[in-house]
Each structure stands twice: as C-alpha cells, then as structure tokens.
Amino acid sequence: MTNILCCVVALPVEAKPLISYWGMTKYPKSDCFPTYRTYDERRWVVISGIGKLASATALGYLAHLADASRSTSWLNWGIAGSKEYTVGQSLIGHKITDVSLKKSWYPSQIFQGPRLKLCPTAHIQTYDSATEEYPDKGVVDMESSGFCAGAMRFSTIELVQSVKVVSDTPTEPISQITKSKVTELMTSNLATIDEIASQLLVLGKEISDTEVPPSKYQQFCSQWHFSVTQAKQLKRLLVQWSVLLPDVDVRK
After folding, report:
1. DSSP label at 106?
2. Could you please report the per-residue DSSP string of 31-70?
3. How many CA atoms lie within 13 Å of 245's alpha carbon, on the beta-carbon side?
C-alpha cells in the first residue's frame, strides 16, 4: 500500500482527540499496540507507550501492519516541555537529538518554506526519563529520537516529521499536568496537525509518482537482460528521455 500516513503517539490521552477527529476505528488485529485507522486505510495511528524504545518498536509494528513503503509518511505527535515556548504552542522539529546517545537527526523542513509555514520549528531533545531541567532553547520529550531513528529506515527524510505541543514549563511543571489538560492541549491543535498530515499525504503522493517506472521500462526489462546497475541506468535514461523528448518514441 502506498501514499498512506502513519502516526505514532505515546499516550491514549494524546491520541484520542486525533482518533475522534479523523473518525478512526480500532484495527481488530492490533494485539501488540492499540492501532486505529480511517475507513480508507490511508491514515493510521498507533499508541506506543512512553519512551523512545517503545516508540521505535510500535513504529516497526505499524509499518508491517499498514504495509508501509518508501512513500509512506510518518508523523510523531505528542506533548513536550520547554523553557523557551509557552504552553499550548505547536512546534515541528528541525533537529531531533537523543541526549544520552548524543546523536541527532534532521527532518526536512518542508513546512517552513513556501509550501506552508504552519508552525515554528524547534530543536527536540529526547531524554530517557521525564525531566524538569529544561534547556534554554527548544523542547524536551521522551519519544522523538526513537521515532526518527525508526521512521527514517522505512521512508524518505521529507516524509518523517515530529510535532510537539508544549505542555509544561518551569512555571507550569510536568507534575501539574493532568489527563484532561493533555486532551485539551491536543484538541486545540487539531487543525494544525490535520493540515500537516494532509500536506504529508500530498508530498507522499508526489514522491510515489516519481517511483513509478517510466514508459517502456518494464517492456525493455522483459525483452533484454539487464544487471541491477544497468537497470538503474536504464530507468534514469528513460526518465530523462521522457522529460527532454516526450513526443518522440524511444524505440525509434
């Protein structure tokens, strides 16, 4: 299956507003992680549990369940803490850092150019446990690094995005967060996440279209034997031909 969106969300209270907004139903075979889908199976949500390992594991499970491909879009959504931003603000990660591993990922910033500008970008730092030691810049969470590490194995960098809603700050600490507060914060940002999801699906379709073999490729491969390298060269040349000489039959 191609051109689908897979969302990885840590907690049920984070996921339920989105599940309701998209009119999703629970996938009956999701015995390891609670998984939901839309009726057309183009949007999926899996609830991973807390932590980067849980996020990566649930992502792999969903990739198999939804038959993910290189043009599948991946979206991580959840709450995060921050000293720089205010409670309720949506942010999309331009850099994801695993603090304990000292390793970073850099999602493509397709939403900060002429395409959209839906929300500010931020550096997301993933900790192994909950913390109230907020860095001066960016936000902190517990899932994004595991999500990015997994998703970028399955899909292209443009289709992997992590979006966070600020839930706690030094003046409004994590110890004061309630389930109802989380639901309220996620609900108030549904329009933003829905637009990001829609644009990811559009981009996924664009990428999927570029992966379709060019005209005559299958015919030539069945008619003559090509090595793997030669087949790649043939595909590239046929694409170039279709762009430069679209009205000329390549066989002549």
Report:
1. -
2. -SS-EEE-TTS-EEEEE--SSHHHHHHHHHHHHHHTT--T
3. 8
- For 48-81, how does the pLDDT look when each residue is reduced to its tens digit (9 = 90+)? 999 999 999 999 999 999 989 888 999 999 999 9
Name the residue among 215, 221, 217, 210 with its Cα closest to residue 70. Answer: 210
Average pLDDT, the chain: 88
Write down the residue that tokens 């290189």 correspond to. 70
Nearest to 220 by CA among 249, 199, 184, 245: 249
Q: Name the pTM for this structure.
A: 0.82
Question: What digits encode the pLDDT tens for the residues 113-164?
Answer: 445 567 889 999 999 999 988 999 999 999 999 999 999 999 888 899 999 9
Residue 52 CA to chain centroid, in angstroms? 15
Question: Structure tokens of 186?
Answer: 């996620």
- CB of 93 within 8 A of CB of 161? yes
| Rounded distance between C-alpha atoms, residue 89 and residue 74, angstroms | 21
- Dihedral of alpha carbons 206, 210, 211, 214, sign: positive
C-alpha 37: how far from chain center: 15
